[in-house]
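Lab manual, section 2.4: Encoding a predicted structure.

Procedure: take the sequence of the chain (107 residues), apply the prediction step described in section 2.3, and record the output as structure tokens. A sample record is shown.
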Amino acid sequence: MTEITAGDIVECVDDTPSRPESQIMPDLGALYIVTNVRALQDGKSVRLKELTPSCWRGGVCACNQCGWDAGRFRKVYRPDGELIASFLCDVPEDVSEDVSEDTPEFV
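Recorded output:
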């Protein structure tokens, strides 16, 4: 299995709460961006950009020590700056002259 690191896009493969304080859970099949990975005694904990986990102290996590087990996720994609740059291109200024609002694509 590929190591999950900060910046990775992951898919939730297990949304079953395993602890009584787990009130906020990722949705099965949903995609998330990992913001932080922390080593624990028995694995790794991940924080997600889109969700704030429940805290062992109660309520929504404010201690920044809570997260979800990395085993709940599978890595989908890690954005690569070079790949993204390869999709970008300069568009000549005269292209807009070839396309008008009457062009079938705009109708």
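Check your result against the sample. Helices lie at 81-87, 95-98.
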